[in-house]
Amino acid sequence: MKTLLLTGVAACLLAPPALAQDADGAGTATEDEQILPLGQQVIYVLGQGLPETPGTPAYSTIELDREQIVTTASGRLEDALANVAGFQQFRRSDSRSANPSAQGATLRALGGNASSRALVLLDGVPLADPFFGYIPFSAVAPERLGSIRVTRGGGSGPFGGGALAGTIELESADARDLGLVQASALANQRGDTELSASLAPEIGEGYAVIHGRWDRGRGFFTTPEDQRVPASARARYDAWSAGGRVVQLLGDVEVQARALAFKDNRTLRFEGADNSIEGQDVSLRVVSRGPWQVDAIAYGQWRNFTNVVISSTRFVPVLDQKDTPASGLGGKLELRPPLGDAHTLRLGADFRRSEGELFEDAFSAFTGARTEQRFAGGMNTDLGLYVEDDWQIGALTLTGGVRADRYTIRDGFYRALSGAGAVVMDEVYPDRSDWEVTWRAGALARLNDAVSLRGAFYTSFRLPTLNELYRPFVVFPVTTQANAALLPERLEGWEAGLDLTLAPGVAVAATWFDNRVDDAIANVTIGPNLRQRRNLDAIEARGFEFAASVERGPFSLNGTAAYTDAEVVGTGFAAPLDGNRPAQVPRFAASLTAAYEIVRGGRLAATLRHVGAQFEGDQEDDVLPPATTIDIFGHLPLWRELSLVARVENLTGEDVVTRNQAGSIDLGTPRTAWLGLRWGY
Hints:
Elements: E1 4-5, H1 9-13, E2 20-21, E3 27-28, E4 41-42, E5 60-65, H2 66-70, H3 77-81, E6 118-122, E7 125-126, E8 145-152, E9 166-172, H4 175-178, E10 181-188, E11 193-199, E12 202-203, E13 206-217, E14 237-250, E15 253-267, E16 274-289, E17 293-310, E18 317-323, E19 326-336, E20 343-363, E21 370-393, E22 396-418, E23 423-428, E24 432-446, E25 451-462, H5 466-470, E26 473-475, E27 478-481, E28 489-503, E29 506-518, E30 521-527, E31 530-535, E32 538-552, E33 555-569, E34 588-596, E35 603-611, E36 614-615, E37 623-624, E38 627-639, E39 642-649, E40 657-661, E41 664-667, E42 672-679
Parallel strand pairs: 1-4, 6-9, 27-31
Antiparallel strand pairs: 2-3, 5-8, 6-7, 8-9, 10-11, 10-42, 11-13, 12-13, 13-14, 14-15, 15-16, 16-17, 17-18, 17-19, 18-20, 19-20, 20-21, 21-22, 22-23, 22-24, 24-25, 25-28, 26-27, 28-29, 29-32, 30-31, 32-33, 33-34, 34-35, 35-38, 36-37, 38-39, 39-42, 40-41
């Protein structure tokens, strides 16, 4: 059977998800895909990459659909991701009240520092900041997304060298999901506002999307009332993002172009403790779904970061990180040759170059005079080559692949001048390069329609970021030094899982895993109020993950839970840390969301979320107590496409401790009620 691409615009916008193709071009629908009754014509949804391969379910994956993404109480991307137990940032704060450089993403309790150990992709493009490795969560509006797939563990494979703890794949919504016009306006009891809009018209043989969002507010006091001083400030924020996407069919080839610009200003703890991030991202993706399937991506990123540190005793600036320009350039090419129905072969290469510098001034807390100027930076590159094959043998699917990465760490330097301009330190670090070979293998056995068994072994690696290598930082009064001699982190692990369909609409999944990160990078205490980034012997994490879902008519229930026994393996300088739990890592985390369609197009949902106790640092002496929160979301149609939206964050007013340094406390979001209108969701 010959497969045709129907290129009529209306048909493209009404189409089901993209169809996987056999070697001869014939369509074979997966369980999430379908063929419309149009004879032998197959309709593809535009704007997606190549379909997932048969071996994908062999690894521990969770998918969030659009409804789960856009119905969070906070309206933030990181809140939606928190529905996957085991996802965490370095601190518990969200992107309205956290320092951006602390917002790395990780999975499976493999934390310990603020860099991302999970690879976050937006339409196939890495999203992490090229210098710091944090994720600019405020730049990605949840209402622009169609789905999220989280793969916990699973190794690097075809995703890139940064997928140490797993991969988080964000997919943009297509024009069918967005509709021609979407808009929303909400405000909370403090006067904070959230404005969002998009336009997605049909153009040529495809569509275009223009979108923007603006969040601003006076915020809340992160400092507990009994610790506030006259200099204490609310966590003010003012963030905007704007972008566009064009998706077009050019014959049998689909072209996707995307651009994004954003800026986010925040104030943390004290007046004058201001920080900001900004960025401009562009990408071009070309997809061909013919007998030889092709997915080619090229992208560029330009980012910056600023931060002012205020003394917690004299409440004056002591550090001005005034400029941290960085760039990330890269691309990916994947080929899937026609090998017949049984095999899906992936051949690919990807490349990323991260380059950046910092410029900062230090000041005396007593005189206000500049005491030092600092300059640092460097460049990391990574060229990866991979091959992976999925082999279907009846009800058994075997998957495996190998990846080789050639990396360089080069042009590193650190220079410090006194307030008078004299050279205090002038270091040029030697260039380094090496190969890292990683692999992964898994099996999926569908015993019947209700029971599947899966298992996987894998390795992966992560380069230290430019931030970890070259940039010291201060969370007053603690100074953390950089370390230009850091080695890459390497993970080895295995997992085994069971997926059950207990009844129509009722499913559960359980996974047991054992992961070990050798040369794990952590902030290690080396003196009073002094830490340094160092490679530990290892972090070991063993645990259990559970997920369940129920769909019964208008009612749905989705829950996840993760229990992880994580500990540091340390000898030599790290011997005092041996057996300690890594910083910021809870043993137990869980999320449960119950939703009910109260009327057609109307939804009421409640989310119960718990995170266990964590330690602030590596010494296990400053505890962040466990926290349980309840969030509420309501959506009620009013007229045509106009709806009323009500949201409540932290309904019970739980004190969520996000920082504890010798009793100096920061708190997370208090009870916050939002009310507003939406059009077109």
